[in-house]
Design a protein that fits this description.
The complex is a heterodimer of chains A (242) and B (379). Chain A has 242 residues and is α/β, with parallel strands linked by helices. Helices cover 33% and strands 23% of the residues of chain A. Chain A has a single domain, classed as 3-Layer(aba) Sandwich (Rossmann fold), CATH 3.40.50.300. Chain A starts with 16 loop residues before the first strand and ends in a 12-residue tail after the last strand. Chain B is of the alpha+beta class. The chains are: A alpha/beta (242), B alpha+beta (379). The complex binds adenosine-5'-diphosphate and magnesium ion.
Amino acid sequence: MNSSMPVGKATPNEPILRAEGLTKAYENGAIPVLHGVSLEVYPQQTVALCGPSGCGKSTLLHLLGGLDSPDSGEIVVRGQPLRPGRMVQTMLRHHVGFVFQLHNLLPDLTLTENCLIPTVAAGVPRAEAMERLHQLADRTGLSHRLQQRIQKLSGGERQRTALCRALMNRPSILLADEPTGALDEATSRQIFALLLELVDREGITLVMATHDRALAARCDRLLEMHDGKMMDSAGSGARTAG
Amino acid sequence: MIFLRLILTNLSRHRIRTAISVAGIAFAVAAMLTVVTILQGAVGMFSSLLSADSQIVVFERNVADLFFSSVPQSAIDAIPTWTLVEHANPVLFGIVASPTQPIITCFGVTATDTRLTRATWVAGSDAAFRTAGQGAGGSNGADSVVLGERAAEFLHAQLHSTIALGNGHFTVDGILRTRNGFEDGGVFMPLATAQRFFHKQGIASVVTVKLRHASDAAAFKARMQREFPTLIALEDQEFNNTYSQFKILKATAWAVGLAGVLMGGLGVANTMIMSVFTRIREIAILRVNGFSPIQLTALILGEAAVVSFTGSVVGLGTGALAVMVLKSVPMLHGYVDATMSPGLLLAVAVLAIGTGIAGALYPAAYAMRVRPVEALRFE
Ligand SMILES: Nc1ncnc2c1ncn2[C@@H]1O[C@H](COP(=O)(O)OP(=O)(O)O)[C@@H](O)[C@H]1O
Ligand SMILES: [Mg+2]
């Protein structure tokens, strides 16, 4: 890939997400995790990030989504260099959705209330938010559970709820960190199929950390990580939006 | 909507904790309301004692307490003759003990004093005051006094009883009822009797003055300054604002109340700190979902506001009830002011809610510093 590509508004031929030489260490440098990671992700691609536990997948996703800052290196999202503060705020509200291994829902609130949180943060009008929620609930088979508290939902339903919440504000990028890692085999397949269907239908770019090879194989690209480095860039070519 | 749900959900998650901090604010507010109301009542009573049908108080310059003020006979005689003046009444204050009561307030007054002329006579009359000056006694030769209704009660005196006050014996010539708690618990003597009894011949503590035209106050004060430079004349409002005893009382009331409210506020602060510390994960989730630091602050302050608002409402209710109960206690009759001004209620509530919210500032600042990544790493 040509990393001297001009910075500007993302077009299908420009990466929607680009990282250049990211390094990150925890505990004041005592625990080095990322050693110069670079990647480019094109619009509407689905990218699997594979590698053994502890190799730095979660750390990388957090940096890409602005939840944490790299020690060095640069991240460019939709043509804009990522800066902490207001820009991250805007990004989390409008452009990037997160799904984690643990659903990270608020257990005392209902499914609806949980899903409305990002819309409240972004100031989306209530009616519009509800319309979007019904649409997503319909697609994820949760329509009959809308008023249910999270506590009463099954593991699969919770993860589907987390998926709905991540997509409420129509992000262009979804960062998923082992989204099915806490589920049993069968549920895991279901949720993953649903995930792929949704990102495909809405034209969302997906970056997903996983160590499930079978799931990874169904993505457009597979990035292999080991000890905080990208192993090879096989299959890293741009994909035509489909 | 979700905002409110987040606030209420969190409060109801820890009902006991929430109830305790609501109770803390409620107690503080109730205590403040009660203390301030009672002391304001006492101050109001004392000043109405002075200003009964008058608008200016004359007393000795630079005395800390009116009991130590001496207005000389020359002033007592001169002031009523000034054309500006409609009427002027000298009053001598004194304190005595009876065998059963350590402190009884005495008022040495003249027959024309409105304290007497406006009171409801429960028994007897003011005859003793009309013949005063001659030291005329009652039936058994003792000096005559008139008792306030409550004083008659606690001295177990009836009309024509003889009572012991200090080293003297007095005949009860009348019992009167006034709306003022101090007066009702006081002993009225003819001025001359009081002067003799307290060894203050020719002296009054104050002269209360009613002017023909309220607008003449400045002229009156100027003439006082010219003719009696050792005395000072203050309009009632001025007096209320400057009299040091009132200032001490008011300051005490507010200090006690403030201390209470501050403690209530610390209770809220404590609750909010607990609330934030046990909710790091939730805060992280909100951050990842786009909540700004300002929105988070609003959430935490909102929670404190709900707690302290609820506490204030409960406290105002409880305080009002306490004041009503106190008012109905016979011992305190007339001492507790009936009215709680809306201004006071508002001041107390605003103070309590303000303190509660201030108590949430640190927890809010802490919440803003929560780093989502670290908070979400662990289950
Ligand atoms: N906040 C942190 N503080 C200290 N060490 C951390 C922190 N986050 C991650 N690590 C360490 O960094 C390494 C990479 O972690 P992570 O990115 O979660 O890997 P993966 O998601 O690939 O399993 C691990 O050794 C982990 O213990
Ligand atoms: Mg991980």
